[in-house]
Write a structure and sequence with these properties.
With 250 residues, the protein is α/β, with parallel strands linked by helices. It is 38% helix and 24% strand. The longest helix has 18 residues. The chain starts with 5 loop residues before the first strand and ends in a 5-residue tail after the last helix.
Length: 250
């Protein structure tokens, strides 16, 4: 059985005296779409930032591709960062650069490829997300959904085995969101890429998630783990049931 690509053990996030969550433990399997879900303020994006090395754990450990990014420095840390891709909530595209130029940024920073080769890779990645005809357009000239797709294309520029997506459906209309969900599932299946997706969008969770964990603000930690459809239908936790069934807690 393949080793997990993400291994989290007893992770605690705290800022000063304020604990966001603690005792978070889970694995992410190769090739799956793994969703981190929960209500506002539960620490979903905070957890993602711990996984990619932006925040230091107050306790516990997070291994990505078998390595603890917080224990790495210099070239070793950069080598691990090149093996992960990140798409932020807004897409975080550079406004003065075309979509193709945005996708080429990681290639310029981390490879010695000549311009022609970088341009070829950029066109290929944009093609994977359905933006072949938009390569020359600026971020201001495209829709929010296209910006999210371009952000995914840039995250894939270095062919990382794992992608982290922060609220990919946020701000999108239902049809555009459904199209983005379908793209994520297709990329995971066709390329074998592992996705770790932070979201609170119920329809997206059920559409894309192979497995998930649910964080809870009051519990300051995990309250559920498993197939999101099974949690919706069979969880005995009232908070989990209320989330999946969109019910107001009494």
């Amino acid at each position: 059985m393949a080793e997990p690509v993400v291994q989290v053990r007893g992770l605690k996030a705290a800022f000063g005296d304020r604990t966001v969550f603690e005792n978070v433990t889970f694995d992410v399997k190769p090739g799956e779409v793994f969703v981190i879900l929960g209500g506002s303020g539960c620490g979903k994006s905070t957890l993602l930032k711990h996984l990619i090395g932006l925040y230091e754990p107050a306790a516990g450990q997070a291994l990505v591709l078998g390595q603890d990014i917080h224990a790495l420095q210099g070239d070793a840390r950069q080598a691990l960062l090149r093996r992960i891709g990140v798409m932020w909530q807004s897409g975080a595209l550079f406004g003065s650069q075309s979509l193709a130029e945005n996708v080429m940024v990681p290639l310029e920073q981390h490879t010695d490829l000549p311009f022609e080769a970088r341009a070829l890779v950029a066109r290929a990645k944009l093609g994977l997300v359905g933006l072949s005809d938009a390569a020359a357009r600026l971020p201001a000239e495209i829709s929010g959904g296209m910006a999210k797709r371009a952000g995914i294309a840039r995250a894939m520029a270095l062919d990382p085995p794992i992608l982290f997506l922060d609220e990919p459906s946020a701000g999108l209309d239902p049809i555009t969101s459904a199209g983005l969900d379908a793209l994520i599932v297709q990329l995971a299946r066709d390329l074998g890429t592992t996705f770790v997706v932070v979201t609170h969008e119920l329809q997206s969770i059920l559409a894309i998630g192979d497995r998930c964990i649910m964080l809870d603000k009051e519990a300051k930690g995990m309250i559920a783990e498993g197939d999101p459809r099974a949690l919706r239908d069979h969880s005995d936790n009232p908070t989990v049931r209320a989330f999946f069934r969109r019910e107001v807690m009494a």
